Amino acid sequence: MKHESEKKNMEYLQAIFDQSADGLMICDAKGRILKLNKAAEILNGVKASEILGKNVKTLVKQGQIDRSATQEVLETKRQVSVIQTTPRSDYTLLVTGTPVFDDKNNIVFVVVNERDISLIESMRKMLAIVRQESEKIKDELTELTLLELKENNIVAQSDSMKHTLKLALKLSAINASNILIQGESGTGKGLLAKFIHKYSNRNPFIQINCAALPENLLEAELFGYEKGAFTGASEKGKPGLFELASGGTLFLDEIGEMSLPVQAKLLKCLDDHEIMPVGGIVSKKIECSVIAATNQDLENQTLNKKFRLDLLHRLNTFTLLIPPLRNRPEDILELVRIYLKKYNKKYKRRSVIGYKAFDMLQKYEFPGNVRELINIIKQAVVMCDKRSLDDYLMNALNKTGLPADKARPLKTSTRLADQIQAVENEILNQAAIKCRTTREAAEFLGISQPSVVRKFKEHGIRIQKGKEYK
Ligand SMILES: Nc1ncnc2c1ncn2[C@@H]1O[C@H](COP(=O)(O)OP(=O)(O)OP(=O)(O)O)[C@@H](O)[C@H]1O
């Protein structure tokens, strides 16, 4: 009876061995192949008669398999799994070798099972290719958008500007809020804010220059007011820009100029996502992305107690830096090209710029950055009678240009800050004499009008021809 059941068990084991879809193989302690099933023959592309009794080392040497799990089991005395390719059958196999020990802990057999993972492997390779392709498409998309920038006349030839624009695109894609754009005056902060907004697919874009309004008016503009909130307020009250920007972007330009009380109110609004109109008692929910820009060192401003540190931390969840134009001369040629084309078209001229003037432009410091470059080109196109703008430009740059290597030394103090202050004072005075309005002065100096107002205030200078500046 016992004999009968043993016989049955042997039959079962034989059936498992023969019919297993996995390849099965048994090797002895020297690595010689003692037995293999049909699936192993198919998977390895061999006949049992060809390899029975052969050592796995020999098979590796003859190139019939690229590596042997059995060999590694015998070396390490533990279970080993390897990925093995079989040149004869072109399968990729997951091969697991398991040692069988005797009482004295010596290996007597190695049981090997082999599973075809060619499909998984080819899917894995396919996935890697698809991933690579999608990365490429993503990159191409970014490049495409950068090309689109060209169509929109946004210049980004330099790596630093490309990097900034790529980051900006990423922020647009995730509809990020609380973005702080830092850069000197005229570097393109306003342009970048509009760019981020454009690709975020949200609307509207509302912009305010925090330097252009006195404290009370700025507060009323930003948060709105209820009827009769103050003398002169409209009968019906007025919605604030935060409310008007709902669903879109509110761009707070020159944020560094905001007074401390308005900063406190702004902080609360960003924290609570709601606003309290001036003279109001009920707050209103707001939902808009906020982009702020500054040409000031806000960290420094916090040390001087002119800017709240908590507001800075709230605003600069993401920071984008636009480098000054003098640090990215690669952009100058393209900027000159597009603005020369623009003003030639506008003023029906056919002006050209040669390499000498261009060379000089490339060496120029551009304290007013891109805005100054635009003004230089515009002035030259309008004022120069000759077709070639070279002489005019070289003359103009020599006279007022102060290229980096030709900055005028000052006589009095040797402190750099004093010297800069004195040069600034001299230039501002020239503008105050020549221009009738701060707008004109902004054009003349190649900086924004609010910057002119601020700088005139700092230096105690007044427009002399007109009566605009108080
Ligand atoms: N990369 C650029 N490509 C083309 N034009 C540019 C670029 N950067 C700036 N400009 C142009 O330069 C001018 C000044 O840009 P913008 O007003 O955005 O500067 P800003 O940094 O916001 O200045 P401010 O700090 O004085 O407000 C604009 O006419 C703008 O279109």
| CATH homologous superfamily title of the largest domain | P-loop containing nucleotide triphosphate hydrolases
Overall pLDDT level: 84
By secondary-structure content and strand pairing, the structural class works out as alpha/beta
Shape: elongated
What are the distinct ligands in this entry?
adenosine-5'-triphosphate
Count of the domains: 3
Q: Radius of gyration in whole Å, from Cα?
A: 38 Å
CATH top level of the largest domain is Alpha Beta
- Taking the alpha carbons of the first and last residues, their distance comes to 118 Å
CATH topology of the largest domain: Rossmann fold
Strand order of the largest sheet: 2-1-5-4-3
CATH level-two architecture of the largest domain: 3-Layer(aba) Sandwich
Q: Would you give an account of this structure?
A:
The protein has 3 domains: 13-116, Beta-Lactamase, CATH 3.30.450.20; 159-323, Rossmann fold; 326-459, Helicase, Ruva Protein, domain 3. Helix content is 49%, strand content 15%. With 470 residues, it is an alpha/beta fold. It contains 20 helices and 14 strands. Residues 401-412 and 466-470 have low confidence and may be disordered. The strands form 4 sheets. It has a 5-stranded antiparallel sheet, sandwiched between helices. The chain binds adenosine-5'-triphosphate (ATP). Adenosine-5'-triphosphate (ATP) is lined by residues 153-155, 183, 185-191, 253, 293, 295, 335, 370-371, 374, 447-448, 451. This is PAS modulated sigma54-dependent transcriptional regulator, Fis family. One of its GO terms (biological process) is regulation of DNA-templated transcription. Residues 154-382 form the Sigma-54 factor interaction domain.
